[in-house]
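Recall that a protein's primary structure is simply its ordered list of amino acids. Everything else, from secondary elements to tertiary packing, is in principle encoded there. The following example makes that idea concrete.
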Amino acid sequence: MHDQSAGGVPSRSAYWIGEIPYRQPDDTFMPDTIDDWRGNRLLRHLVERLNAEHPFIDLNTHSLWALLTARRGLVHDHPATGRALAHRAVAALDSDRISAQSRQELTSIVYSLRTEGITGTGTGR
C-alpha cells in the first residue's frame, strides 16, 4: 500500500515526534519523505503507547500498521522493541476496547511478526 494516505501517516507521525530532523513549512512533504528517515524512534514511540486503555489506541494502531507496511524489516533493527510489540499487540487483541479496523491491523502485525520469528516470549519461537 503506497498511496498518499499510507505514506503520509508514518511521515506525519515521524515529523511530530522529531524523527524527521528538518522543519517543514506545510504538510505537502508527508507522502514524499518516506525515504528520508528510518522509523526506529517512531516505532518505539508507538509501541510504548500500544495499550487498549490508551485514548488513541486506534490511531496508534493504524500508525504502527502503516509504518510497518512502509518499513518492512524495521522490527529487526531493535529486537527488544519487536518483542514488546508482539506482546502488546496480543494483549490489545485480547481486549474488547479496540475497533474492528484496529483488530484487523493488529492481527496483520502479529502474523507478520510471527512469520519473521518474533514473538513476545523473547525466544523467537
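The mean pLDDT is 83. The two ends are 29 Å apart (CA to CA).
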